[in-house]
Fold this sequence. Notes:
Number of helices: 8
Number of strands: 5
Shape: globular
CATH superfamily of the largest domain: Beta Polymerase, domain 2
Distance between the termini: 42 Å
Structural class: alpha+beta
CATH topology of the largest domain: Beta Polymerase, domain 2
Number of domains: 2
Strand order of the largest sheet: 1-2-5-4-3
Strand content: 15-25%
Oligomer: single chain
Amino acid sequence: MLRMDSIAFEIAATAARMVVEEGLEYGPAKRRAVKQLGLNTRTALPDNDAVEDSVREYIALFCAETQPAELAALRKLAITWMERLPEFRPYLGGAVWHGTATRLSDIYIQLFCDDPKSTEIALIDHGVDYEARTVTGFHGESVEALSLSSMSPELGEPVGVHLMVYDHDDVRGALRKDAKGRSPRGDLAAVRALVEEASHE
């Protein structure tokens, strides 16, 4: 059992480095870590919570001086987009919400509306170029994602922003606490509060 735990730990630690240094998502990072470590492709993978813990440790060790400012910049950019689309009840999720994002991380915002096409019309009205694709939602269902590139003034470079379009009624399930008892995403007021709190630290 100890051997399995040490292998899972090794995969999580290797994946965490890829997440932070290359901006990989957790799934691809875990699979690449298995390959890099020369393990069997059927090796049991650590869960996302274990990878997130390793990401936090990696950031604390190697990025403690740069990461807080990068995270603040990404949260400010997320706020900009949430303020542009208030009618779709935007919620921020992912690494930018949980505080593990670096300048290589993308921003994931969930939108909740009755008519998915209305979000595309809103982007067109704003003159925004976007790419529509289908991704897996938080309940394993297919949802539309509108992906775009947005310049971060603080970082001085473009950041990927992904707007995931959910049905209006899905918002209730979206706010269930995760395995660690945390809110998996936050609304505009919650994100503003995080930015404000960090600015006083």
